[in-house]
Design goal:
112 residues; five-stranded mixed β-sheet; alpha/beta; globular
Amino acid sequence: MKLVEAITDDVMVVEAYGRLDSTTSKDLGDRLIALLQSGNGSLVVDLKNIAYISSAGFRALLIANRAAAGRDGKLALCGVTGEVRRLFDIGGFTGEFLIFPTQADGIGKLRP
């Protein structure tokens, strides 16, 4: 998995590429927690380039979401489409996250 990090309009954005599974989820989760702890506590994670997400991937995102809430921050997801969206729906995870169609929508919601 590849992660690309950028700050846009004072919001940290992480674009993830590849598969979010048992091999890659720990690295993603650890990085999201580190970013939440070092920044303002809010983060947009763009999943448009994720081809697959497993239960381990959902777990990493849920832990990061709770960490953001614990810091009075927010974790927003965007680009949740296709097969990944279907897996979110099947797993009942769509209600657990702030999900926006585009990165710009997520940034607009989290901008300080």
